[in-house]
Structures are given as structure tokens and as C-alpha cells.
Amino acid sequence: MEKVTEYFGSMVFDDRIMKATLSDKVYRSLKRTIDRGTPLDISVANAVAAAMKDWAIEKGATHYTHWFQPMTGVTAEKHDSFISPAPDGRVIMEFSGKELVKGEPDASSFPSGGLRATFEARGYTAWDPTSYAFIKDGTLYIPTAFCSYTGEALDKKVPLLRSMEAINKQALRILKLFGNDKVKSVKTSVGPEQEYFLVDREMWKKRKDLIMTGRTLFGAMPPKGQEMDDHYFGSIKPRVAEYMADLDKELWKLGILAKTKHNEVAPAQHELAPIYDTTNIAADHNQLTMEVMQKVALRHGLVCLLHEKPFAGVNGSGKHNNWSISTDQGENLLSPGETPAENAQFLLFLAAVIKAVDDYQDLLRLSVATAGNDHRLGANEAPPAVISIFLGDELTAVLDAIEADKPYGGTAKEKMKLGVDVLPQFSKDSTDRNRTSPFAFTGNKFEFRMLGSSNSISCANIHLNAAVAEVLRQFADKLESAKNFNKALHDLIKKTIKDHKRIIFNGNGYDDAWIKEAEKRGLMNLRTTADAMPHICDKKNIEMLTSHGIFTEAEIYSRRDIMLENYVKQVNIEASTMIDMARKEIIPAVARFAADTASAVSVKKSVSGAACRYETKLVTELSGCVDDMDAATTELEAAVAGLREFTEIVPASEFVRDTMLPAMDKLRSAADKAETMTAEDYYPFPAYDKLLFGV
Ligand code: ADP
Ligand code: MG
Fold it and tell me: Which residues form the pocket of ligand 1, taking CB atoms under 6 Å from any ligand atom?
């Protein structure tokens, strides 16, 4: 058997391959572009393209594609072959620097939210040399950013790169104040833990809802759900283990550092975590991971569900965005240090994150808002829609001490004076690992847990980076002009704690009492996408995002429209699928069962004269169910028709929230009740117990 060390990254045009295939001069020039963003010379691009092509052809590739992340939520690719006609009627394989650097996909059918009028349908993709090219299915993939011809971002990578640059710029200002002159760049890193469900493909094929929407729109709870908690970290079934091994291998070939795999809380639910990487690379890798997960599942007769809530009543799937900021010198700025100065610097960055999360709760919430994730936030075992920060008791006590000018704990005798006292050591892996907090400090990083399993991590990180960059800017402005740095620093941290401690909550986030408490503290509770998304256009958010060059104002409005359109479209597809299943499958099945039972009653009565009390009662109840389902379907049909009347996206999204989703719930509960009374062999598709325990 092949060794992992031998095939790891074998499909990636990585640093090792670059070094081996490029001339020294070209390699160094490309490295400068990768590390420092210096513009790439066309002669260098030509040389890189030629080397890439030769390497890819050697590996059996025939095509190349500019791979990008439009606002649809999935990645997009258009494949071109390397072939070029030769004068003698044969072909040669060609790939120029121009083709590497820039592509021009027909952009007219990607969502632009009005940014790109259809008569100017052109957009272009630009190579992101910081993310390695790779080969998948015989095609050389070139990670790219996607812009309109006038330079507006049409994707998620462009603003992500801009947000990383914003945080780099502001963090460098802060580090300079601490005398950290060696640092040349600051980058954010992310390790996204990815949850998913596996179901049997044959069963999946029988469910229109899974096929069309990725989640079950109907289904009563099975006798056994996740009450026993016996699945979490449980032993992995052979078929799943084979899938996971195959998946690891495919990911490793693509240079993705898949590290941890285990069962999750819900039956049929699992998790995969990679080792963390620079944010834009982590984003590309996570996107690729989701694609490979789904592809490999098919080989094993399985379907991988990435929907946030494939099954009502059991845990949904999320993605934990483990996030930290570090310097090119290898220092993690969210790691408490050993010297007083390091600690003061750590506390300043900590304070910046606390303030950023409090000031921009709305942006963080809307960065993860989708129709799918709405089912999860606030539901069983998921973070609530309210944003709060978990710091743990020890760190909270340190902040309390600073705020009150009191000594901390038993260690320091004097009151805490930053820059003088050593911050007491606190355990990196505190035992009270709070799993219910949407934004938890976990020793040297923050874990943003509100992301949905199918979300691109780009959106969350764009807004997180932007918010923190903004607060660092405010801090730097203040501190740079201070006469007494240590005093100004102390006052700034103290004031920040005082003003923003309402966002800190170390208790149980799933407790209803917390929602009430959060309301008292004035925290936002944006329960749905329709509630959250419009806030991106709030004055304070537009000002902040534009001032750091993350988005233009036009881009912000277009993002709101695109995200709300996605929401409305998604729910509309679900509603239409429900109507179809109810009318063509469920209602006829239940009616047939009722009719068969009724004719059995009449035969039985005429033959034996028996009262048939059970059957008569059943037929009456089933008929009632059929009537209820019919009425609820009619109501939902009216909602679908009603939605067509809207021409503006914001009111349409409110209609979806207020009318369509409740109508869907009503139909679902009528059908789920009917399901529990209908004989299994009459039911048109596999029920929850089969789906959840059938692999
Ligand atoms: P868990 O949360 O499941 O206990 P860990 O906390 O060890 O697991 O790690 C979860 C994820 O966090 C992994 O993807 C890991 O690579 C990532 N991670 C660890 N350290 C950092 C860091 N400094 N910055 C960003 N991500 C990190
Ligand atoms: Mg975790």
C-alpha cells in the first residue's frame, strides 16, 4: 500500500513542485507575489503556466478551469482543454500566462444583484496565486477571484482577501506600538470543523424532498432518536469507516490536511476537521472538501447531506470556524503570553475582538444567514440566534479585575496594571468547554459556531475580519496619539471591558432564560434570514465596510439582494416540493389505506357481524387527516401563488417568513400525524428510522 507521505499533495502544484519546475528567478518572483502581493510580470506568468501545464499533462490532465466561488453558494468552473491546432492537422497542448492569470466566463447567469446589467454580461476571473492550483478529475483547477468588468466583486473570495488585508494593515499598526517592528504581515487562520450526515443512496432516491432540497420536508420522529447520546464519538460502522478512509485519501491527494473524524451526536451524523490554514486557503479547501465528500459518498452507495437540518427533531449540522490572528514571525496574537508586555498586547487584541463582536453582532449573524441555517439556529443543540462570547471563568475574572481596578485572584497582590504585571497563567484547555456558546474563546483562538454546514466560510470571515479590523483601527488611532502609552492602553482596555461586557456570557446558551437575559442586555436576536440580512445596509455597517475597502456601497446592496433572493428561492422550491409530495404521494397513500381499511370493515361486518370498532375509528381518523392535509396543501398553494405577486425582494422575504414557512409547518404536521397512523407498506417513501439507522 502506498504511504500517505508519498501521495499527500500529489495532485497539487505546491511549493515543492514550483521549486522543482521553475527557474530560480521565476520561482523567486512568484514567491514575492504569493507572500507580499506584488504584481506578477507576464513573462513570469508565462513561465508558470508552461510549468503548470507540463506538470498537469504528466498527471493525465487534459483540461484546465478557473475555479471560483460565485454567490450561489457552490463553486463554479468552466473547463477548457489545453488543445490547440497545429498546422499539420494534429494538436499541441498549450496554456499561456494570459490564460492562467485571467479568464472570461460568461457571467450573465451568475447572481450579481443588479451589479452587472445583462447587456454587460462580461465578468472576469483572476488567478489567486496564494492558493495552490490542483488536479481533480483530469482537470487543472486554478483558484480564482471573480469580478465584474468594472471591478466589483461578484464572488466571496475578493471581499475575503480584502478583509484579510484590512486586518493586516490595522494589526501592524498596533504591533508597532508594542515595539514589534520585525513583523511584516499579519494573517488570520481558520480551521473549519465540518459536520455532515450520510444516508443510503437507494433510500435517498425515493425521497423527492432530499433530492430537490437536501432536507426532509416530511417525517415523523422515530421511536429512537438521539436521546441515548450513544452515537457521539461512538464506534464507526464499517461502511462509514470505509467511506471516511476513502475520503481522507482523496483529500490528502489534494493537499488538504484532513485530521480528525468522528461520529457526531445525531445518528448518521459525522464530523471531519482539518488542520487550520490561512483563511483564504482554508476557504478554498473547505469548499473542495464539501465537493469531495459528496462525490466519494456516491462511490459507497451513500449520499452525503450537507444541509443544516436534514431531519427535524435531531441535531442539525454546523461548521465551527476556529479563528486566530498570527504574525509572519509565528506569533499567535490570541495566545496569552509569558511577559507583561505580551500579556498587555494579548489583552488588547482580546478586547478588540470583544468590542468587534458586540458592535457588529448583526453582521456576524447575517454572515451565516441562509434558509437552511434558520432551521438550526435556536433549534435543538444549536447555538441560539443571539450572539454572545464565552470566555471561561478565569479570563472573565481577569477582565473583571481590570475593570474594577482590583487584584486578580490570589496571585497578584497589587491591582492589575497592564504592561507591568504578568497575567496569571490560565489553563489553555479549560475543563468547562462550553459547547453552547456561539462564539467561544478556546485558549488561543475563537470558535465561531454559528456557521451552517453548507455555508462558505468566506462570508463569516469577511465580516469577522472587517469588524476586528475596524476596532483595531479605532484602538490604533487612540494609542498612536497618546502621550503616556501604558496609561492610555490600560484605560482603553478597561473602558472596552466596561462598555462591552454585556456580550460576554459563560452560561448555558441553550437555556430559554438566556434569551430573556440577552434581551435585557440589549443584544440583538435576529431569528431569520429575513430579519438579519437587511441590516447589512444599516448606515453604520455601510460606513465601516466601505471605509476598509471590503465592499463598495453598490456591492453591499447587491449582496443583500442576492442573499435574500437565495432565501426566497430556496423556500419556494421547498414549498413546491411539499405540494408535489402531498398531492401525488402522501395524500393518495393515506387515502388508499383508509379506503382499503373501510372495505375490510364492510366485508368483515357482512361476514361476521362484528362491530369493527378499531377499524371504524381508524378510517374516521385517517379521513380527518386526509382532509387536514388537503386543506393545508391548498393554503400552501395559495402562499406559492402569493409570492409571485412580489416585485421587491425585502417584502418578498418577509412574506416567506410570515406566511410561507408557517404554511409549510402546518402541512408538515398534518402529514406527520397521518404517517404515524398509516401502515408502513402503504407509505410512499422511507421513514426517519430507515434513513437514520439504515447505513
Ligand atoms: P475541538 O474543538 O474538536 O476540541 P480543537 O480545538 O483541537 O478541536 O481544534 C479544532 C479545529 O481548530 C481544528 O481544525 C484545528 O486545526 C483548529 N485550530 C487549532 N488551533 C488553531 C488556531 N490557532 N487558529 C485557528 N484554528 C486552530
Ligand atoms: Mg470545536
Answer: 189-191, 193, 273-276, 322-324, 332, 442, 444-445
